[in-house]
Amino acid sequence: MYYGNIYDLPDGLGRFDIVVLGMVLSHLRDPFQALYSGSRLSTTLLIVTNQTMKMEEPFACFMPEPDDKSLITAWWGFSDGCITRMLGVLGFRVTHTVMSRPECLVRGREGHELCTAFVGERMGTDLIDALTS
Fold first, then answer.
1. Is residue 91 part of a domain?
2. Domain range holding 111?
């Protein structure tokens, strides 16, 4: 486990067979940068767990309302297709997904909520490296 800047995970952490980003992407202003940062350290699998909209289309929704000054709990909502595409751009093919219903402890939203774990297997050079080379 590493506690630090998810947008710039240090190379000094080393390389890992499996990198897991659990229930974090929706809560980040730049979720793709966090995925990229974690993907650089994975040799085999990148597992992303998140609540998603059950759509194959690559869709993301910006959640904050400028007129609502209440506590913001999430920046983004993602479709299954969006997570799958982001992983694909980073060189990972989703081999399978696992559904779960963990308990949510957020005040006013207590109960079980549907979450999906996307298991991405490294397939080779990612599109980001190819585009920036």
1. yes
2. 14-132
